[in-house]
Amino acid sequence: MTRRILIVGAGPAGTLLACCLARRGFQVDVYERRPDPRLLDEEESRSINLGLSARGIKALDDIGLMDTLWPLTVPMRGRAIHLPGGGAPFQPYGAHEGEILHSVLRRDLITTLIDHAEAQPGVSFHFRHRLVDLDREAAAVHLAEEGTGAALTVRGDAVIGADGAFSQVRARMQHGLRVDHHQEFLEWGYKELTIPADDGSARTRLEALHVWPGEDALIVAHPNRDNSLTGTLFLPVERFEEIADPEEFFRARFPDAIGLMPHLAKEYAEHPVGHLVSIRTSPWHYRDRVALIGDACHAVYPFYGQGMNASLEDCTVLDRCLGAHPDDLGRAFAEYQRLRKPHTDVLDELSKQNFVELRDRLRSPFHLARKKADLLLARLLPGRWVPLYTMISHTTTPYADALARARRQDAILRWAGVATGAVALAAVRRSTRKGGPRC
Amino acid sequence: MTRRILIVGAGPAGTLLACCLARRGFQVDVYERRPDPRLLDEEESRSINLGLSARGIKALDDIGLMDTLWPLTVPMRGRAIHLPGGGAPFQPYGAHEGEILHSVLRRDLITTLIDHAEAQPGVSFHFRHRLVDLDREAAAVHLAEEGTGAALTVRGDAVIGADGAFSQVRARMQHGLRVDHHQEFLEWGYKELTIPADDGSARTRLEALHVWPGEDALIVAHPNRDNSLTGTLFLPVERFEEIADPEEFFRARFPDAIGLMPHLAKEYAEHPVGHLVSIRTSPWHYRDRVALIGDACHAVYPFYGQGMNASLEDCTVLDRCLGAHPDDLGRAFAEYQRLRKPHTDVLDELSKQNFVELRDRLRSPFHLARKKADLLLARLLPGRWVPLYTMISHTTTPYADALARARRQDAILRWAGVATGAVALAAVRRSTRKGGPRC
Ligand SMILES: Cc1cc2nc3c(=O)[nH]c(=O)nc-3n(C[C@H](O)[C@H](O)[C@H](O)COP(=O)(O)OP(=O)(O)OC[C@H]3O[C@@H](n4cnc5c(N)ncnc54)[C@H](O)[C@@H]3O)c2cc1C
Ligand SMILES: Cc1cc2nc3c(=O)[nH]c(=O)nc-3n(C[C@H](O)[C@H](O)[C@H](O)COP(=O)(O)OP(=O)(O)OC[C@H]3O[C@@H](n4cnc5c(N)ncnc54)[C@H](O)[C@@H]3O)c2cc1C
């Protein structure tokens, strides 16, 4: 008999998992409280964009979707760091061509995934259906239809909570259990601001991730296919209200950004402040009845650009565990948590550190020297010296393995002494410039 | 007009706070889901005992209760460490006479506090009343009477959640706020076992805290006034079920304990397994309407014997903040969290470390040497060298200040080198033995 899985939440994790489960022959029902994104017009579905990198790409490629998605993305070949004194030096990503990020609209990604899932037998999406309660013993969800409030109860063989950081499936699944839970809100929040195209052409270098670093405020911007960019302004939460005149604030802090954002004042007034939460939690599953995926089991601060990528990668890991234990959902779920959680825990740590890096260190000469040494070593020792950022963003090396390796590399760098290292490297560089094959 | 404060929970924190608030002229109502402990007979109110130390003593003395309480306590002058090979060397606490802990039955402590609070004008206790909901805007509690289920709503000027680690006041107060929450269950749980008096006299040294350390199981026992001791067996949670024959297990692991526990098999079968949780959380208050105290805002593992002591100390800090801001509960609550939370956060860290110490290190020769060096330095440099354990257990130095000082001392010890230190100390010791006034 075909087993039926109920997925709550049609974000990146829920929609990709629907595709994977359908391929394994499950009947899949996805319940999403928001309307079908395909039925909304442009204005209604104003979408954020996200940086898609190696892990997400691999997971999407696994179900054969990248060919459809590539045309919907814009490559980001490196970072453009906007300095307060003016100028925006461009740092290419990684040491090798091809190590680039890709900006994609959340709406485009989700829509592609929904279309693909729906085309497979046994998959149905139920939009405007909100989970209001869960019976974890029965794998049953209680839903309310948005608008009408009509109530509905559906029972499956298992329920997957893909309902994001404030997962109701998680809350109800874990109720009364021995739960480890670590939740933190960052003191900083965010607001979206647009860099619109100027008469059809881009106002700044398009194929880059733009960063305006700062201790008290920072901006990150990703490009869109229509030559606009979407900026995200990060500030200590209470600052948003204190700033009476955003243009004046920008003139003082981000002088070169103000020319790029003609709608700054209006958007600043109208766009809500988003909050940033980090969540590590356990357990991720309840027997063979309920499991969590994506932000529902590991929300991270967005400063490594990995939240969605990790959520997509989760699907691959869970899918593999279902393959290894085809007749035992409980074992598959347990194995999935065992294999996956150590890595998303590390991602949480790294995402917190990268906030500090963006905020405090991006402009520090020591940090820049360190980054340069890293990139240089990567060129000199291809495949043997891989900077942490590269491993996280441009490879699918599991997060914890990447960190362990970076720590070994760090120890070597520290041991050699940064200063001695720099001198030696300069010498090596000169000699390889002269005769070496690689530079 | 007299302001009315509603306290939920009549544990150590709630009952002491009732006394403090009454002294400040508040009207106080305390709601407790359990029956009045004064109405239960011995058997019904089987009570755990707790180690009362300097902080708790200070807080209780502040409201003039120690004279009533002293006769209800048993001094613990040091630790008796039971070694697997037999023998139980006694380590006195601290370097100075008077640095001792006091064992008290929870029931005796609470009863004394309730009697004292009730004797003051404006204080009422409402037993068998369980909080079922909280309206944080209105400072109103919704209660159900145990047994009858009768519902009751009471409104005050503010509500204090003193309802322990799984505080419902906390859950409802924090709902939807930007909450930082760190909760962990220890992999180990506990079970109480009695060392009854033998025909009226104690079976082992009474005035000591007994410890049977171990990597895979440990026991801690406190004395009672009737010459019995109450032991707490700590084990990895799943082990409790696996042990089919507790006597056999004890014979192998705690051979000298088996003779002390004639009811071992029966108690092992009948007593429930307790779980140990650590909680750090924020915020501790909601405007001027709701605040948390005791385990409700900082539950710690019991291995430093400080949970209740810290909860009692909270009352003193909150009371002082109410004194500083007599007309502004909101400021008093905010100030209380600002002053107090950094210290209970440190206690959480220390309590986790002390588990490792009890489990792994108590028997290690290096650790014993370090302890000895610490005690010796404390004797040689009275008031200037204070071991961490002494500062936590035998002083009221705020927890974080104690840790900071211990770290400075540690750095010195490390810097001097443990080995060199030991030699030098031995020399100093010999010379002070000969001519010094202190040893
Ligand atoms: C400012 C910002 C920038 C980011 N940038 C990046 C980036 O560049 N790269 C990257 O990889 N990640 C990024 N992320 C992280 C990324 O957005 C998330 O990790 C990702 O969206 C998680 O996917 P998900 O499917 O697990 O959860 P979500 O995307 O949160 O989806 C959950 C879905 O469940 C639905 N839902 C919730 N509750 C219910 C309910 N009760 N009933 C029914 N449905 C429900 C929601 O409506 C939603 O559709 C960023 C995040 C932020 C905040
Ligand atoms: C095994 C063990 C050993 C320990 N040993 C020590 C020790 O030696 N020294 C030490 O200092 N500490 C020790 N502790 C810690 C100590 O027990 C706690 O820190 C202390 O009891 C906390 O006091 P409290 O008043 O904040 O909460 P609690 O003691 O938990 O009291 C909370 C009260 O609220 C009531 N309540 C709960 N929910 C509701 C509701 N919904 N409605 C109404 N009432 C409610 C409960 O019935 C209870 O009476 C130990 C703990 C454990 C588990």
Polypeptide structure, described:
- 2 copies of one chain form a homodimer.
- Chain A is α+β, with helices and mostly antiparallel strands.
- Chain A has 3 domains: 4-77 and 106-183 and 278-354, FAD/NAD(P)-binding domain (3-Layer(bba) Sandwich), CATH 3.50.50; 188-275; 365-434, no CATH class.
- Chain A has 15 helices and 20 strands.
- Chain A has helices at 12-23, 54-62, 66-69, 106-118, 168-174, 239-242, 246-253, 255-258, 264-270, 307-324, 329-361, 365-380, 388-394, 399-416, 418-435; strands spanning 4-8, 27-32, 49-52, 74-76, 78-81, 90-92, 101-105, 123-127, 129-135, 140-145, 151-155, 158-161, 180-195, 209-212, 218-223, 229-236, 274-282, 285-286, 290-292, 298-299.
- In chain A, a hairpin with a 5-residue loop joins β10 and β11.
- The interface between A and B is small, with 10 and 10 residues.
- β13 of chain A pairs antiparallel with β13 (180-195) of chain B, so a sheet runs across the interface.
